[in-house]
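Researcher: I've been going back and forth with a colleague about how Titin might be arranged in three dimensions. Neither of us has a model we trust, so I'd like an independent prediction. The organism is Astyanax mexicanus, in case that matters for your notes. Sequence below.
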Amino acid sequence: MQPKGSEDWVIAATTKTCEGTVTGLAKSQEYLFRVSAFNEKGRSDPRPLAAPVTAKDITIEPSFKITCNTFSVQCGEDLKVEIPVKGRPAPKVTWTKDGQALKETTRLNVSSTATATILSIKDANREDCGKYTITAANTVGTPEAIVITRSLVTIQWTKPQYDGGSVITGYLVERKKLPDGRWMKASFTNIIDTQFTITDLTEGDRYEFRVIARNAAGILSEPSESTGPITAQDEIEAPSISMESKFKDVIIVNAGDTFTIDADIAGKPLPDIMWLKDGKEIDSATPRMEIKSTITRTILTVKDCIRVDGGHFVLSLSNVGGTKQVPVNVKVLDRPGPPDGPLKVTGVRAEKCRPHPEVVWKKDAHSLKQTTRVNVLTSKTSSKIVIKDATREDSGKYEITLTNSIGSKSAEITVILVVVKAGEILRIDAEISGRPLPVISWTKDGKEIDAKARVEISSTLTTTTLIVKECIRRDSGQYVLTLQNVAGTRSIAVNCKVLDRPGPSSGPLDVTGLTAEKCTLTWGPPQENGGAEIQHYIVEKRETSRLAWTLVYADMKATTCKVTKLLKGNEYIFRVRGVNKYGTGEALESDAVKALDPFTVAAAPTCVEVTNVTSEAMTICWERPVSDGGSSISGYVIEKREKSGLRWVRVNKKPVYDLRVKASNLREGCEYEYRVYAENAAGLSKPSTPCPLTKAEDPLFLPSPPAKPKIIDSTKTTITLTWNKPLFDGGSPVTGYSVEYRKTNDEDWVVGVGHTKNTEFTVVGLTSGTEYVFVVKSINKIGPSEPSPESDPQIAKDREDEPVFLISNEMRKTLIVKDASPLLGVNLSKMAVAGSPVTRLKLWRKDSRSGLNAVSLKQLVSLSTV
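Model: Here is an independent structure prediction for Titin. You can compare it with whatever you and your colleague have in mind.
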């Protein structure tokens, strides 16, 4: 044996049997082993073990010994169930009841001994009935450090021998700082691999590491054994190479063979590996040359050797500790190379340069007749005979003759065909001779035949016999008898054909295109056709909950078919059997599959909102669902519900393809909420979140502003303006107006009145001689409108207007009175007079003569005689 890191081999044990025990190993140390045989002449070359071995305890998969899996007890009695448990290291046992973790109480508890787990129930009652499950798991393999530096350590471990009945889903790594530290998590995420690097270590400090496995049931194993103390420091170990002694001599191989150079390597840090040939580095991508390396071994393989593959090979290792090189010389034996050229060719004529030969096949010296069963296939480079459903009559000596204008060439082959039926005895007898007596060996399809229950090989000095009893389909093939002595080797082949039902079809039996109602099956033809052509296939199906098979196709010619009329949600197994003229073959079964659509319902639509609301209709909008469930959205279904209602009512009779829909025929004043479903091939999704309640009413807007206000009067402190009503009241009656004003040289507006119902208003409190402009806003229940256009500028002063008579049509008529009649006290007319300041009437005249007195009272005038 050879400890890791050492170049010396030490004899570990000597034994006369093919088994030995090595003692005195160091825990967790890695060793290489090799075995040599010896006799009185000396010791043979050693045969190394393929991989290094680590000295550590073996693990035993946890197991239970359950003699009874059903327990009955009367209500009120105690129940105690003790189940023996085996495992190494001692497994961690957990109990569950009906799939849930078993909760221990004062009445129900679980205890464990070194060899068993015990469930105790006091005063059992009906609630204690159910299915109890026991799970056991032991630790993972002891982790070992494979990389150690001053700041990190990389450890690796092996998977647990037993997974507790549930697949291992990850690992947890813990570390402990020596000497007084406690175990703490070194990994805060689930570790999938069996290797992990712990970082943030303090240089020079000593640590221990251990691993805990977790399975899919969420159960944690017992911690593994620790790695032992590891110091966080860079290790430096010069590279070392260990090779078998045969590589010290020249390695001689024949052309076409494959040779391998392998070596055990070591070094810290891990050395860089380089293979050289004749002083040049070998590229791993070089054709026919393959380099495989692990942390302890490197192998160079050269396939299909040719002459140039011989030469001087060097394995070179290097790291910070130094460089190590080992040479290996290889010699390839081959035919000589081509003579020095060029090769001059003269006198060549086209019609005589490699003419294609005529091919003639004969059987037992007679021309071979081609039939539908026997065919000769000849190309420019080859010729072969294809015989379908061969029989004993096809045995014999076959001869091929090639003839062209240059000459002819012949070759012979003897074909021995033995045909037996399944269950019969195959017997091959042969006479042998040779001096010295040859060594006899039988092979089938290239593999040596061993005598066993159905196979007998018997030989004498002059004969050898192979007997195969109760032939089965797998006994078909080519049997070769080989005789060998120092004078040479001779072989003869016998082709055996066992007629039987076909074997199973080539798997796997693929189930594709699976939906809730149908699927497609695909398989390959049987590799063993039983000596006859496959006529058809029988296809069957079975629900996993049933034992009986149902026929799907009784005469399927193809190797693919469609299965329909499946029941949604049921689990099925399918099988296919080939049929030839000898019967129905073995079945090829599929894995269990559940008849479900490969898609699901879509997610619910989002962001449902209402727009364009009137007293009779409103528009509902939404966004596409975040997932279509694997099938494209075919439409949407919209439902509504009144505020006081309990039942949702469908809005659309046909699916809606757009992301909006108009809901009509609403009741004015009612409040509605809406929700939306998405529909795909799997059906309707869950409903969306309903939108907020929306009242069916005509929309209201701000009114339009009034027209430009007009100034109708002014004084030194007041200005009176008037305006017209707005053209649009916003859908709600105008409830009033507000008036604002500002000085023409200011930018700030002042509210003259916040609300007035009239279309005329007098702004008071103005500064005499100051120029103002005015705007008016309309007001409805929504609010004030935009301001009207500004009025013309107006100075706050007394207004001066030229007097104007406002004579009515009645005043313009001629007044007829009786002559000499008095007009005293008679009101002849009333006439309005406009003007500012207030107009006073001075004098009435008649026919340019004064003779009437006039009295003016405000703007009303009465006429009377003097």
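Researcher: What would you highlight for our discussion?
Model: I'd start with this: The domain at 618-683 is CATH 2.60.40.10 (Immunoglobulin-like). After that, consider the following. The longest strand covers residues 322-333.
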